[in-house]
Design brief:
By secondary structure, the chain is an alpha/beta fold. It contains eight helices and 15 strands. Bound molecules: adenosine-5'-triphosphate (ATP) and zinc ion.
């Protein structure tokens, strides 16, 4: 049994117990150099190489636990933060768990535009986010909060539209619905308790943790690339590869040849690989990056 007492000097970090952002949270923490063994269903996982304990709870409870100081920090979807509006700080967006909240209608609905929503019944698991959107668009609708399976409500006559989380869109398609309006873009974020961000000990630990986490987030989707090229092709290659602003250029023994090294977005790189080769790049090496510390 671990000491729940804040006075033990260890940071408390909340993550989702088991759900769509659990794996991403664990991968991020491991990749940031925190070593712990996570077991499903276990409330506490102590970190071996940093004074921190990880608390696994339902994602809906994370904003409140952090607001009340039961945990100093937490990883949760920004959709949950926006919906619950807790008195906390958002410290850093984490670039995973991306999804959107959208208003959707049946394929054959008379509702063709946002303005047509006026007077309709909308079922949602996100009443606060939906109400904020309706208010800012001066729309008056009947908002029904339900706890799940909103997709079924139009077909059984309970609602004219739904407001729900979407990532690929396959679930709404399956239920004969289409997206009318995307109203909130979400990703996982690191949140912090306001008092913990002020107190010396926790403030210091959070600062150390942030350096590591941010360096991991920066390296996600990035690759380190090295290639050989004729020196007079360097400018052309720089134009082909977006983001390769100031590559390191090293002369090779072979006359007129250089090695170019840089960090690029992985997708950008694969998109232009053929163009790079056609422009004279050879011996291209692509490697993963664990962390980038600016
Ligand atoms: P819990 O049991 O912890 O309350 P839950 O069922 O409310 O879990 P999940 O479905 O696991 O929550 O989703 C957790 C978070 O993952 C969402 O709040 C959202 O930020 C993110 N997410 C990313 N993609 C999706 C998706 N396609 N559907 C739902 N959530 C998604
Ligand atoms: Zn939940």
């Amino acid at each position: 049994m671990y000491n729940l007492n804040k006075e033990n000097g260890r940071l408390k970090l909340a993550i989702q117990k088991s759900g769509r952002i659990t794996d991403g949270s664990i991968e991020l923490l491991n990749g940031s150099g925190f070593s712990f063994s996570y077991r499903d269903g276990v409330l506490y996982s102590p970190v071996n190489n940093f004074p921190m304990d990880i608390l696994s709870i339902r994602d809906d409870d994370i904003p409140r636990y952090v607001q009340e100081g039961v945990c100093d920090i937490g990883i949760v979807g920004s959709n949950v933060v926006e919906e619950k509006n807790p008195d906390i700080e958002i410290l850093v967006p984490l670039n995973f768990g991306r999804c959107r909240i959208s208003i959707c209608v049946p394929n054959d609905s008379d509702i063709k535009s946002v303005a047509d929503l006026s007077g309709s019944k909308i079922a949602t698991t996100y009443p606060a986010i939906l109400s904020k959107f309706l208010k800012s668009n001066k729309l008056s609708c009947e908002v029904t909060e339900i706890s799940g399976s909103t997709e079924l409500t139009p077909s059984i006559g309970v609602a004219d539209a739904i407001c729900e989380i979407i990532s690929s869109g396959s679930t709404i398609k399956f239920h004969g619905l289409k997206e009318l309006k995307r109203i909130f873009d979400s990703e996982a974020v690191l949140i912090g308790n306001k008092q913990s961000l002020q107190e010396d000990r926790s403030k210091e630990l959070i600062k150390r943790l942030l350096i590591r986490v941010e360096s991991r987030v920066l390296s996600r989707d990035k690759k380190y690339i090295a290639m050989n090229a004729p020196f007079d092709k360097v400018e052309e290659l720089k134009k082909i590869l977006p983001g390769i602003k100031s590559p390191t250029v090293i002369p090779l023994l072979e006359d007129g040849m250089v090695a170019m090294h840089s960090v690029v977005n992985e997708q950008d790189f694969w998109d232009v690989l053929e163009d790079l080769k056609n422009a004279g790049a050879s011996g291209i090496v692509v490697s993963s990056i664990d962390n980038i510390i600016p």
